[in-house]
Amino acid sequence: RIVVLQRDGDWWTGKIGDRTGTFPNNYVQKVGASQQEVAVAIAPFHTNEEGRLSFDQGQLIYVTKKGDKGWYQGEIRVWPSQFSLCLLIRSCFS
């Protein structure tokens, strides 16, 4: 998954993980929002282990890959709060 940082004509700048570079825009296809799976953290998970993602309860995690043995890969994104709406969701199990 490429995160597009800048669109400049036929060549765009993007990021995959910790690598940043340019690529021709006709080599990529935009993934629609309906194809993106989002998970909500039901408990905090904090780790210093390399390759593991730390998060807080209630944080949205964008799933990038589902692995076997119960581990997923994902990313946490940032956006300006004035363009979002917070929802209160209660657990069905409480």
Automatic annotation (TrEMBL):
Residues 1-33, 34-94 form the SH3 domain. Pfam families: SH3_1 (PF00018). One of its GO terms (cellular component) is cytoplasm. It comes from the Eukaryota. GO terms for molecular function: guanyl-nucleotide exchange factor activity. The keyword Nucleus does not apply. SUPFAM superfamilies: SH3-domain. Keywords: SH3 domain. The keyword Cell membrane does not apply. This is SH3 domain-containing protein. It comes from Rotaria socialis.
